[in-house]
Amino acid sequence: MTDHRPDHRPDTDGLEDHDLGLSHDLPRILGRRRILGLAGGVGVAAALVACGTDDGVDLTAAGQRPEPPAGVGGGPGGPGGGSGGAASDVEVAEGEIPEETAGPYPGDGSNGANVLTESGVVRSDLTTSFGSASGTAEGVPVTIRLRVQDLSGEDVAPLAGAAVYLWHCDRDGEYSMYSESIAEENYLRGVQETDAAGRVEFTSIFPACYDGRWPHMHFEVYSSLASATTYSNKMRTSQLALPEDVCREVYATEGYEQSVTNLERVTLDSDNVFSDGHSLQLARATGSVEEGYVVSLNVPV
Predict the structure, then answer these.
(1) What is the domain extent for residue 241?
(2) Is this structure's pTM higher than 0.70?
(3) Could you tell me which of 87, 88, 91, 95 has the C-alpha nearest to residue 37?
(4) Shortest CA distance to 188 belongs to which of 234, 135, 244?
């Protein structure tokens, strides 16, 4: 098993661009995180709430008061469930998705290879390699649904026409393009453009838990497909944390045996990325091993 614990991003000059060129310079990086609690009759300007819908990630409309989270103010179920009931003033969290390290295996030009310049990288199905590579990643199926939100204005708004580059390790905890056994593969990496609602969707396999890290996926947000050519144009780099109960279900299946051991050695609070807070990065997951899972996360930038 490759040791993935070091996280670094050396500077790289002389990077190749797409034929479309770079649309504009890297936007300013927003602050690390802001948490705003509002209760007892105080109005809520905007709330980012992950809801339990089957067709993707739902957020409250810009400028509207949020539905109460599940289990609060009359909403059904408990924490993490769907929203419902009459709108009321509740304690909510808002803020941009935290900036995180891309790790040592990004494939975005910051540490060696740059998959973003390769023809075929814009795709929704990440399970197979593209171009001259032909490998397929084995594992429990997972659909990843992200919704990118723009926090730069007075109201929260969908960020349409942006690009999301998503990548993660395979069932053995290895990364294509870097790990020796799959250095010639480029699966489990791809780019999608956000639709009018700010949504992107990828199909992939559930990643392993490798030694020293909580199960996760990496992603970068770019202002457009044309700018998604090199890490230096990214708006945000972050990571998605996978829920523990789902991880345990998946890791009980064939092929994930080492992940069972590795998961016992780490927690979200001890992980070197998520230990400073993971409330905006912990994804919601639904489904089963037999039918596959859907993993959803709001990505406000």
Answers:
(1) 115-300
(2) yes
(3) 91
(4) 135
